[in-house]
Design a protein that fits this description.
The structure holds 2 protein chains of 2 kinds.
Chain A (H helix, E strand, L loop, with lengths): L4 E9 L7 E8 L2 E6 L8 E4 L3 E6 L9 E6 L4 E6 L2 H18 L17 H13 L1 H12 L5 H6 L2 H13 L15 E2 L6 E2 L4 H10 L1 H10 L6 H16 L3 H10 L1 H7 L3 H11 L44 H14 L10 H21 L1 H16 L20 H25 L6 H18 L8 H20 L9 H4 L2 H24 L5 H27 L2 H34 L10
Antiparallel strand pairs in A: 1-2, 1-7, 2-3, 3-4, 5-6, 6-7, 8-9
Chain B lengths: L1 E4 L2 E4 L7 H15 L4 E4 L6 H15 L7 E5 L2 H22 L6 E5 L2 H4 L3 H4 L4 H12 L1 H9 L7 H9 L8 E3 L1 H11 L3 H8 L5 E5 L1 H4 L1 H7 L8 E4 L5 H8 L2 E4 H38 L35 H19 L5 E3 L1 H12 L3 H17 L9 H15 L4 E8 L7 E9 L2 H11 L2 E6 L7 H6 L5 E4 L9 E8 L16 H17 L3 E6 L2 H14 L1 H8 L1 E4 L4 H17 L3 E6 L3 H5 L9 E5 L9 H14 L3 H17 L10 E6 L6 H4 L4 H4 L9 E2 H15 L17 H7 L4 H5 L1
Parallel strand pairs in B: 3-13, 3-14, 4-7, 4-8, 5-6, 5-7, 8-13, 15-20, 15-21, 16-18, 16-19, 17-18, 19-20
Antiparallel strand pairs in B: 1-2, 9-12, 10-11, 11-12
Helix pairs in contact in B: 1-2, 2-3, 6-7, 9-10, 13-19, 14-15, 14-17, 14-18, 17-18, 21-23, 21-30
Chain lengths: 598, 758
């Protein structure tokens, strides 16, 4: 049947146990459409084929009914029960054809909002954000689920959050653990002398990074010469020999088994790397260069001191590795950071990825040789300058990044309290009454300067920002903290927990509503009009709730609660006033609407 | 800024100057005026080097008729580079303000290993192989051969340099080693020989101590310095040890075996020459009859290390007849090696004076004192005659000849000590014969005699009256400066008890006590959790450090420390230590934070700065006494007592405390910097120990911080760090200024100066 679509009667089941909604299933090359017979029932489905990843179906002859199970890339599934197996077969073949043709697998179907096509990743991100931030979740529940705001509106004000989260996800990479690999302790079963090591790809990567010789051995031995299991057994055998600190025994074992010797010997790759690295080391600590001028330590010149006298048996020294070396190497690797970014599943893959990475690095280093000598010189001159003898130079300030404003204000509390005395005097000096011309002039000036030079980075001068924050902190901590007796304890802390949480929650939800409210002005479309009405209703609902809180607290705290509630009232009042005023205006001049201007 | 000190206009690089830098310059100028030596102690982190350089360059600028040369000696190559970098900044400043008349030539001088640009030579691993590699390409006979046979490899850089002849000069300027290499590469000239050549024209020469103190090196490099030069020894607190080591030699079994191999090789060479070119050996014999003809007219590339004895003590006469013939000399050396081998086969520790040792050689091996004395020069002559270029193979026989020459030259101030094994490891036979010098004044005497002004300066020269006695000289100025601080930016503490209130110490009977080790570990663990960025720990010895790290590793303390900071350790391998340090700095730079474990008296303690965020805390675990049962130390103590009336205990404490002070002093770089110092040993709380610390540390060591336990120290550390993180006024409070501007200096004039400073 070469038709472009199939239409069959079927039952749509969301789960296997679901009795199913009877309806018509219609499949085209693009999408799967299921329309229930009963238009009121909820099982309507409209899924594009590109979201479908795979199909399963029950076999004829088994005692199961004819089911077709289509899985999407979110591991969700759509189950259809057909009336007979021939229908199932037809549909199955069609799906198979389409899947084979499409081939490409991508995003999940949008379930909820027809006006917005969300990618699965975006959806996931939103869910993750909500999960991480309980406050956000509460707000979401309160407004979106109750219908005050739509999903789009809610997230529209948080675009930045979405962006930042998205970009952060790609940037942050996991480093190595700070624990040494020698800390991998075996587990014993307690009865026999057998020990078991648990190796994760993570640990293996670390071993490879810290011991290039082991890495090289792995690449060349496994799996041609020995299995991975024997490889690691040998490795830990060697580690055990090291830990016994018996270099003679180690030498004896190494003589018998040449593969074991690889693990026991000093790492020659490291040694050659060290020689390369020493050339680019910071010249202010290049002690190796000193040896060139050291004529008293010609062999056997000078006085042999404690420490320079070692008891070395030259032959076995080859198999001696000190703990200090291990520690230094470990720290160096941790510092370098993880070199590879592969999914840690297969050790072979890990080993190969690491090999590629080191190759790239070494070739890069070859090119940058010229730069390093320049850099070394710069570094040297930086180390020699005495900074406080120099005249004052303005240091570039890092722009401030505040994640949660509350953290900032809490931390500023102490400062603000201390400086509140003298800072208050300063604030008054700031000129408040500017004339319209002045404001207009300064605005024009700044616009023209932005036109000429573009935006500066940072946009706001750090000093200005600091001043503003100082002033803000001051006034905020005045109301918030001056009431408390102990400066460490804010008013909020003295309230009962429940009240405190409610207050904070109301505060954030009011802020959210107001944000949307003010953003809707000027009202230019009916959509905004509806939205404002919705918001207004939601806001007026808050009044009684606030009253309720006031009523619920013990009388000695009531004054303070009302102090806290007052700004919320004021903000709401202002909004509602504005709403009413604009409503009146609208009704007054309903005839001519001056371009949405309120 | 520029200002007047009496008749000299001083050009100073920075806009401000510390008051102590100013008074340091005044004292220095007085010493220069008096044409005498001086001894100046000024705390680390107060800009000694720049003060010195500013004053001396300005001094010579103000007196253009006398050509004053500055010979600046540093202990390490990186200090050399730093000094030159500082001088470069200063020089640029002076040029800017004075114009071309301020021009000078300043160069750093180091070995071939640090200056060579020939990649084939540079591929060698150590200094001696590089030297030998260079000789193989540039020795006069090799070049003579290459002139005939183009297949003989030579060094392109050296050939270019030779071809340029007198045109090969460095234009005025300041050249760090790196600059020299770059200049050499650019011009295609050998930087090493260029620098060696330019030393005589340079206004400022910066090189290692040993180029002046060790007669082996000084003999070739520092011969032609004029008397008017000013010699500066920076970081000179260990100068007595450098002097002593320069004149000490030790012989072990390996040395004797190597020497025997060398002698066999030489005898083969002699046979070969006899067969092919006997005239050469005859020519040498004739030259030796006429006297020591090999000095003076030697091509620069043929120079080898010079005679190990001091120039005044070298006999200026003909080589004795019995060693003029190469075979005879070889026999003498074989007998000497045989004799020494016999002496090494001893069961007991033996101590002998050089005089009786020489007498014993004479009676047993039939070598008289005069012959011994000439061993070194005779060997040198023979090696040149035999045209041996792989000199790095012949170090053993060279050691033997050094030994012979020294033992034949000096009758007093030395002793010979033969130990059959190391006292701490009596089960391992490792015989060693050491000729050890006890008198630091011997090696430095020629320097004091030759140059009119020698400046000895360091952050720790306390007690300052001891150094003139140790080095046997009379300074015209001897001063110790304190540090004027804007705020208390150093915080020394003495920790006597661990968290369990039990005393901690590295005293011999306590050091292996598990309680002490645990308390030390806990101290470090607590500290790394509160101190940001870098932390440095010093231990009394390598073996102690190894032991304690292993114990910490086993007990899991190390793992906990690693949760807070990365751990790096100084090892005896210089390359590894350097890389560890480099990584340590990186870890501090990137904010990860790190701990560095190091050893007092080690290379790191001597020369690496842990300033700013590279070291916010130093912990000195224990008192770094020398190993007091060491035979050499005992012999030296005896000598000091008999000759200079210095008590053993005093000297040991002085030596231990100067090392400790040196370790902890590395945290401060400038007054904007800050750092804590913990002396973790109960013995530091005793007055006789503590009082040996330099005054700038003592003045900040408050009485309440003298007897702390871990928890109290932790509390103090937290408070200190919090205080230091606050912004502060750089210029200093109302009472005393800690930063002077040009105006301040003008205002002070001559009279008002003292009251402002003190």
């Amino acid at each position: 049947m070469a038709s472009t679509h199939v239409t069959k009667r079927a039952k749509y089941k969301t789960t296997i146990k679901d009795p199913g909604t009877p309806g018509t299933l219609r499949m085209t090359f693009e999408k799967i459409l299921f329309v229930p017979h009963n238009p009121k029932s909820a099982g309507k489905l409209d899924v594009e084929f590109r979201y479908i990843k795979g199909k399963k179906h029950t076999k004829e002859g088994s005692n199961k009914p004819p089911w077709l199970n289509l899985t999407n890339n979110q591991n969700g599934s759509f189950i259809f029960e057909f009336e007979n197996y021939s229908d199932l077969q037809e549909c199955r073949d069609f799906v198979g054809k389409v899947l084979a043709k499409g081939g490409e697998v991508s995003e999940k179907p949008t379930v909820a909002y027809p006006d917005e096509q969300l990618s699965a990743a975006e959806m996931e991100l939103r869910i993750k954000l909500l999960q991480e931030d309980s406050e956000l979740q509460k707000l979401h529940k309160q407004f979106v689920l109750s219908g005050v705001l739509t999903e789009t509106e809610f997230w529209a004000t948080r675009k930045k959050l979405l962006d930042r989260e998205a970009s952060k996800k790609t940037k942050q990479r996991l480093g190595f653990k700070s624990a040494m690999i020698s800390d991998i302790k075996p587990s014993t079963d307690g009865r026999t002398n057998k020990v078991t090591f648990n190796l994760t790809p993570e640990v293996i990567l670390q071993i490879f990074a810290e011991k290039p010789a082991v890495h090289r051995a792995f690449l060349s031995y496994v799996p041609n010469k020995m299995s991975e299991r024997t490889f690691w057994t040998k490795y830990f055998r060697a580690e055990y020999l090291h830990s016994t600190k018996n270099s003679i025994a180690a030498a004896a074992e190494a003589a018998e088994d040449e593969e074991l010797a690889v693990f026991l010997k000093q790492d020659d790759i490291l040694a050659s790397e060290a020689r390369k690295k020493i050339r680019r080391v910071d010249p202010t600590l290049d002690m190796e260069a000193d040896e060139g001028d050291d004529y008293t330590h010609l062999p056997d010149h000078g006085i042999l001191r404690e420490g320079s006298k070692e008891m070395t048996e030259s032959q076995n020294e080859l198999y001696k590795r000190s703990l200090s070396q291990d520690i230094n190497r470990h720290a160096a690797v941790v510092l370098e950071g993880r070199a590879v970014d592969v999914e840690l599943e297969d050790t072979k893959a890990v080993a190969e990825a690491l090999a590629v990475k080191t190759e790239i690095e070494s070739s890069n280093k070859g090119e940058s040789d010229g730069d390093t000598s320049r850099e070394r010189l710069d570094r040297l001159s930086r180390m020699t300058e005495i900074e406080d003898l120099q005249g004052p130079n303005t240091l570039p300030l890092a722009p401030l990044c505040i994640k949660d404003p509350r953290d900032y204000f809490d931390s500023q509390q102490a400062n603000a309290l201390r400086s509140s005395g003298d800072a208050l005097g300063e604030i008054e000096q700031i000129k408040c009454g500017l004339s319209t011309q002045e404001v207009y002039g300064s605005l024009r000036e700044s616009i023209s300067s932005i036109k000429a030079m573009g935006l500066k980075e940072p946009i706001v001068k750090p000093e200005v920002a600091h001043q503003v924050f100082d002033a803000l902190t001051n006034s905020i901590s005045n109301t918030k903290y001056h009431i408390g007796k102990n400066p460490q304890e804010s008013v909020l802390d003295r309230l009962p927990r429940k009240t405190k949480e409610e207050l904070l929650h109301h505060w954030t939800s009011i802020l959210e509503l107001l944000k949307h409210f003010w953003a809707s002005y000027p009202i230019t479309t009916t959509y905004l009009y509806v939205k404002v009405n919705r918001l207004k209703d939601a806001m007026s609902n808050i009044y009684p709730q606030l009253e309720e809180i006031k009523g619920s607290v013990p009388s000695e705290l009531r004054h303070q609660v009302s102090l806290l509630v007052r700004p919320m009232h004021q903000a709401l009042d202002a909004a509602i006033q504005h709403y009413e005023a604009s409503m009146q205006k609208r009704s007054a001049q309903s005839g001519e609407r001056p371009n949405g201007y309120v | 800024m520029k200002f007047q000190i009496e008749d000299v206009t001083v050009y100073f690089l920075y806009d401000y100057i510390y008051p102590e830098q100013y008074s340091y310059m005044i004292e220095l100028k007085r010493a220069l005026d008096a044409k005498g030596h001086c001894l100046l102690e000024m705390p680390t982190g107060t800009g000694k080097t720049i003060a010195l350089l500013s004053l001396i360059t300005s001094y010579s600028l103000s007196k253009p008729e006398t050509s004053i040369k500055l010979i600046y000696c540093t202990r390490t190559v990186h200090e050399m580079e730093k000094t030159l970098a500082e001088l470069k900044l200063l020089h640029n400043y002076q040029i800017k303000h004075l114009g071309p008349q301020a021009r000078l030539l300043a160069i750093g001088l180091s070995s071939r290993k640090n200056l060579c640009v020939n990649p084939t030579v540079l591929a060698a691993e150590n200094r001696d192989s590089v030297d030998a590699g260079c000789r193989k390409l540039t020795a006069s006979w090799v070049r003579a051969m290459a002139a005939e046979n183009p297949n003989v490899p030579t060094c392109q850089f050296f050939e270019n340099y030779e071809r340029a002849a007198s045109a090969a000069v460095l234009p005025p300027g300041v050249y760090t080693l790196q600059d020299l290499r770059m200049f050499g590469k650019e011009k295609g000239w050998c930087p090493y020989f260029l620098a060696r050549h330019m030393v005589q024209f340079a206004n400022v020469v910066v090189y290692s101590y040993q180029y002046l103190l060790d007669p082996k090196v000084a003999g070739i490099i520092s011969k032609e310095m004029q008397k008017e030069s000013v010699v500066v020894f920076d970081e000179a607190h260990n100068i007595d040890n450098v002097c002593i080591e320069a004149l000490s030699v030790s012989v072990r079994r390996q040395t004797l075996e190597g020497a025997t191999r060398n002698l066999n090789r030489i005898s083969q060479e002699i046979d070969r020459f006899k067969a092919t070119d006997a005239s050469r050996l005859r020519a040498e014999y004739n030259r030796l009859v006429e006297g020591l003809a090999l000095r003076g007219n030697l091509p620069i590339t043929d120079n080898w290390l010079s005679n190990p004895a001091l120039p005044d003590d070298i006999l200026k006469e003909a080589v004795p007849g019995n060693i003029r013939r190469a075979e005879h000399f070889l026999h003498v050396l074989r007998r000497l090696v045989q004799y020494l081998r016999g002496r090494l086969d001893t069961e007991n520790v033996e101590k002998e004076s050089p005089v009786s040792f020489v007498a014993s050689i004479n009676s047993h091996a039939g070598i008289d004192q005069k012959t011994l004395k000439f061993c070194y020069d005779r060997l040198h002559s023979l090696m040149l005659t035999l045209e041996i270029t792989d000199t790095d193979e012949f170090l053993h026989i060279q050691t033997i000849c050094d030994f012979a020459t020294l033992v034949g030259t000096y009758g007093r101030g030395f002793s010979i000590i033969i130990e059959p094994f190391d006292e701490r490891m009596p089960h391992i036979p490792d015989p060693i014969l050491q000729l050890s010098c006890h008198d630091a004044s011997l090696a430095i005497k020629p320097v004091f005699d030759r140059f009119q002004s020698v400046v000895i300066t360091s952050g720790t020269l306390s007690p300052i009256d001891l150094y003139p006695r140790l080095l046997n000289f009379h300074p015209v100025v001897s001063r110790s400066f304190t540090m004027s601080l804007t705020r208390d930016c150093i915080c020394p503490m003495v920790l006597t008890r661990g968290s369990d209130q039990l005393p901690v110490s590295t005293k011999f009977d306590m050091r292996s006590d598990p309680g002490v080790v645990r308390n030390y570990g806990k101290l470090l663990l607590e500290m790394v959790s509160v101190v940001p960025d870098g932390t440095v720990c010093f231990f009394v010895s390598y073996s102690y450090m190894d032991g304690i790290i292993n114990t910490w590793n086993d007990s899991g303390i190390l793992k906990e420390i690693m949760q807070h900071k990365l751990v790096f350790i100084e090892t005896q391998d210089v390359v590894e230590t350097t890389l560890a340090l480099d990584n340590y700095r990186k870890a501090c730079d990137c904010g990860r934070g790190a701990v560095f474990f190091s050893v007092a008296r080690g290379k790191v303690a001597e020369g690496i700065d842990f300033d700013r965020h590279y070291g916010r805390l130093v912990i000195m675990f224990g008192v770094p006494f020398q190993y007091t049962l060491g035979k050499i130390l005992l012999a030296r103590l005896e000598y000091l007592r008999d000759t200079f009336q210095i008590k053993e205990g005093d000297f040991l404490t002085f030596d231990a405390l100067r090392q400790a002070a040196q370790c902890v002093g590395r945290v401060i770089r400038s007054k904007a910097d800050y750092g804590m110092m913990i002396f973790a040993d109960k013995r530091y709380s005793r007055h006789d120990k503590r009082s040996k610390l330099p005054s700038w540390i003592l003045s900040h060591l408050r009485d309440v911080n003298l007897n702390l336990s871990t928890d109290m120290a932790l509390h103090i550390a937290k408070e200190f760090l919090r205080k230091m993180a606050q912004p502060y006024e750089k210029i200093g409070g109302s009472g005393r200024k800690t930063l002077l501007s040009e105006e301040d200096l003008e205002k002070m004039g001559d009279g008002g100066m003292d009251e402002m400073l003190y």
